[in-house]
Structures are given as C-alpha cells and as structure tokens.
Design brief:
With 255 residues, the chain is α+β, with helices and mostly antiparallel strands.
Length: 255
C-alpha cells in the first residue's frame, strides 16, 4: 500500500535508482464496470474520474521516488518505441501512437496500460536507461520486445521483468496465432498446448516473451505468473469482463 493506493513492486535486482510499479484495480473513484482505479481514457469511463485516478497514481509514484508527469501512450498493438519527451507541456498534451516508451531522463515515468496484454519492464544494470513495452500477441509476434531492447546498446547488460497478463491456462487462441509465432521460430511451438476445442490452443505469453528476449541476447528475465483473468479482485481483464478498466505499469529512474 503506497499513499493509500495499492501498488505492485517488481521483484528484480534493478539498480537502486530505478523504480517501477504496477497498479491494481483498487484505490480509485471509477464506478462499475471500471471500478475503481481505471487509468484508461479510451474505455468509456467518466473523464473526470480517470483524471482523478491519474492524479492519485502520480501522488503514489511520488511517494516511492521523485518523478514528474508520466508519458502516456495511444497504444495500437504495433512495434513503435518512442523516447519520452522531457518537456512536460508537450508530454501532457500529446499521446504518441506507440506501444513502448523509453528514457534516460531522470524523474520521467514511462507507462503502458494493460488489461490482459503483457507489460514488460526494461533497465540496464547501471540504471542509465529504462523502458516499458505493451505486448499483446500481435505486438509480441511482430517484435515489440526486440524493438524496445534495441534502445539499449548492450542487450546482455539489460534485465527485464514480466508483469501481470493473461495466464497460460486462460489464453485460448486460434491456430492462426500459433502458426504466426511458429513461422518465425519453431521453438515457439513449446508455448502452445491443445485446447479442449478443436483447432484452438492455450498460449503461454510469458514463455513466448522469454523466448524472444533470450534470442535477442537478454538473459536476465524475471517475473511472469500473475494471471489477470484469474484474479478479479486485483486485476482488470478484457478477456474476462469485456468492458473494463486499464492498469498502468510505470518505470522511471532518478539521478
């Protein structure tokens, strides 16, 4: 509990100047079906409630470590990575169309929103650069994690943490999803097991992410295993509920 707002803090050996947090659905003012800490402006919630929720989030982040207004994104399940804008006026007036954000600036939070897709934190071992990516199956297949990792000069000096996402027992997909991954890497077949429905598969998005990161030279991978669908008390889930809120995964560095 931080500033009366529940935050999940990653369990990873990040440098002391790197700070990261994931919101739950608790601690906000939104009414059902967005109750209560919905941070998404695009899901039909009252804009005033979302603004209050974002204000509460900023206060909670600042109680962890000094920081400014976060860089929010308009996420499109693509592979664009942006550099967070140091100018606060620009950062608060523009929502770039991207699915990952990175920075070397101190006190500048990078954020993605999810409600089943996989959020992935990145930082280098010296704490000079941080990043966070939003990986649904399409973005993951198309290379959003690799694109984010390319922002760091030495992949072997980077660590990653896999946040809450739809778990392998809940992520049922069609054969076209499995074929898309396997076409790029035969090892991806290990991340799919047959569903009870013919022609359907249960996909392990955590394993798929680990495979991609390992093949890109990033060996220090932590997290994974928090299923959004299976934990309605803590997490929003689009697959479970349809109309629902969004959680935020936020990372920043201090000087």
């Amino acid at each position: 509990m931080t500033d009366n707002l529940p935050l999940l803090l990653p369990d990873w050996p990040a440098p002391d100047n790197v700070h990261a947090a994931i919101t739950t659905r608790a601690g906000g003012v939104s009414n059902a079906p967005w109750n209560s800490l919905n941070l998404g402006t695009h899901v039909g919630d009252d804009p005033l409630d979302v603004a209050e929720n974002r204000h509460r989030l900023l206060r909670a982040l600042q109680s962890v470590a000094p920081c400014d207004t976060p860089q929010w994104l308009n996420q499109v399940h693509g592979v664009v990575v942006i550099q967070a804008e140091p100018d606060t006026n620009v950062r608060t007036s523009l929502m770039p169309e991207a699915d990952a954000v990175t920075t070397v600036a101190a006190g500048l939070p990078c954020v993605v929103m999810t409600a089943d897709c996989l959020p992935v934190f990145f930082c280098d071992r010296e704490g000079k650069r941080v990043a966070v990516a939003h990986a649904g199956w399409r973005g993951l297949c198309d290379g959003i994690l690799e694109k984010t990792l390319q922002q760091f000069p030495e992949p072997a000096q980077v660590m990653a943490w896999l946040g809450p996402a739809i778990g392998p027992e809940k992520f049922e997909v069609g054969d076209e999803v499995r074929r898309a991954f396997v076409a790029q890497d035969a090892e991806a077949d290990k991340a799919f097991v047959p569903s009870s429905q013919a022609g359907r598969w249960l996909a392990d998005i955590y394993l798929l992410a680990r495979q991609r990161l390992l093949k890109s030279g990033l060996m220090a991978i932590y997290g994974g295993g928090l299923c959004t669908v299976s934990d309605p008390a803590r997490f929003f889930s689009y697959r479970r509920d349809g109309q629902t809120g969004r959680m935020a995964s936020v990372i920043w560095r201090t000087a």
